[in-house]
Specification:
alpha/beta, about 45% helix, about 325 residues, homodimer
Chain lengths: ~325, ~325
């Protein structure tokens, strides 16, 4: 028996855009949106909601901003059941640049934050909620968070705001099933009594993105992030096609995702890189931010795995 | 605290050879052997033990036979702690072609069989044991085995032969953690009281090869198969580098594996194909032998994922 509460959020464009600064063609983004819609995905996260002055338009594409006119062009005149989401980074969006939900194409705004930023996140969530949006809080890099601080943050969320879900975010792709179990149990304990769901956003450094998403489901998480072909910065994310192959809810249909894999993603893979690449494995094993691996991959030493590993080990010792 | 009972078996050449009929260069095989030895791997499985007439030497390379002279050349004069293994397929090896263990470079011979072949497997294992080798039994395709037959086979093994370990083999790469837990528990119940360990050989169709190996470890399996870079037919296997990154026993050293990844596997990947490729995902989701996906990948339709999926669904209906 499937669990109807389970919601799938596709963040192909938002997370994949971290690789190429959201320089996707309009057609590609349209195809992703349509494939998700037809597949029965619950939410599609199309980018970041940022204020216009925060980033240079010469560097980043339109989905770093998610301006209303772009969103409206994307979804067209009639939108089906699928809900549209954007992510907000703390400090990158001025409150006055967020329209009322009734005037926006967005249904949900997700707030990404570190544990230490929880007060700012809650403040932003309250503001967004007041404007009529659904929200979630995505607590990043929990694999390095201290337990007492995390507990306090979760308690505070439960007491101070009405958000839809709080995500366990394995930013470094370093967590094993035991850690996922531990964290989902913890989140549930603080949040479920307040009517807040638990979500999972898993990175794939150790080829555990999908496995950890399943483990979170087994433990009772109901919001699942995934991306088509597992696209995402570095090692990427939980692949949507695997998640749809696992979920039993008949509303999901894997075929439109298989189609876009063959029609759009084979080409994209020739242009940009993500997936099972050893330097990202190494930062995952060491529970580190992938930035050193990203830098390595841009250098002439991109395949010097052993030397890279040893240099990180030396760094840790200091 | 690590579990010293855990044994890692590298089957890079044996399983990887299923892709290219063991047409590896001698230097490559030597490098794999040496990397495993220096990394502290417990066993390296270098190929199949087959009788000379069973396959054409024009088609398959020497590691389909594992003749003694080739093995002895490989290991050289002084072998370290690492043990050498070969796999035997039922009906492909004449008993008289297996030398006494004291005259062989092999330490272990593993017998692969389907549940229905268990009598033949036990007979072969007894013979091999009598000749002085370590043995294991690798029961293939258990994801399609019926419970009563599997139970009977496990009971029979426990009663009739002294083998080192019996493997849960996820031949189709279709199992999720719950099935792994269920099977490892079952194998343990029948086998541990007889002094027989449980092993895991996981395929990677659903990116769960490593995850399922961890789940088997958590449940008490002590024999782990893996291959460098996850090489293996179709989607491949549990990547050895991930397993070594997970295991805490200080005898393991990941660096020689990282070195061979950069020095030999980048090149090999340009020549032969394995890994996260959608047709193998599809056979995994459908719990089917990957042969249809292998055939598709050799055809002009190799990237017609949606059509392939729909054709298999139609086949199932019949």
């Amino acid at each position: 028996m499937y669990r109807p509460e389970i919601k799938v959020l596709d963040c192909t464009i938002r997370d994949g855009g971290l690789i190429n600064n959201w320089q996707f063609t309009d057609q590609f983004v349209q195809n992703v949106f349509t494939a998700c819609e037809v597949s029965g995905i619950d939410y599609v996260e199309i980018g970041y909601k940022s204020s216009a002055g925060m980033f240079s338009k010469d560097v980043v594409g339109k989905w770093k901003f998610c301006h209303e006119e772009d969103l409206k062009k994307l979804i067209g005149k009639k939108k089906g059941k699928i809900k549209l989401s954007a992510m907000a980074d703390i400090g990158r969006i001025n409150y006055e640049d967020i329209p009322q939900a009734k005037d926006s194409a967005l249904d949900m705004i997700r707030v990404a934050c570190y544990v230490k930023e929880i007060d700012k996140a809650i403040d932003l969530v309250k503001h967004i909620t007041d404007k009529g949006y659904e929200t979630t809080i995505n607590i990043m890099a929990v694999s390095q968070a201290k337990d007492p601080e995390l507990n306090e943050a979760l308690q505070q969320i439960g007491e101070e705001c009405k958000t839809k879900a709080v995500y366990v975010v394995d930013s470094f792709g370093s967590m094993y099933s035991e850690q996922i179990h531990y964290l989902v149990d913890k989140y549930k304990k603080y949040l479920n009594p307040k009517g807040i769901e638990v979500g999972i956003h898993a990175h794939n450094n150790l080829q555990l993105g999908f496995a950890n998403t399943i483990e979170a489901i087994i433990k009772g998480a109901n919001f699942m992030d995934a991306t088509i072909n597992g696209i995402g910065r570095g090692a990427g994310n939980c692949p949507l096609e695997l998640l749809l192959g696992f979920l039993k809810n008949p509303k999901f249909n894997i075929v439109p995702i298989l189609k876009i894999l063959q029609e759009d993603f084979l080409e994209l893979r020739k242009e940009i890189e993500w997936g099972y690449i050893i330097p990202y494995v190494i930062t995952g094993i060491l529970n580190e931010h992938p930035r050193s691996a990203i830098k390595l991959r841009e250098s002439a030493d991109k395949d010097k795995y052993a030397e890279f590993y040893q240099s990180l080990i030396e760094d840790i010792k200091v």
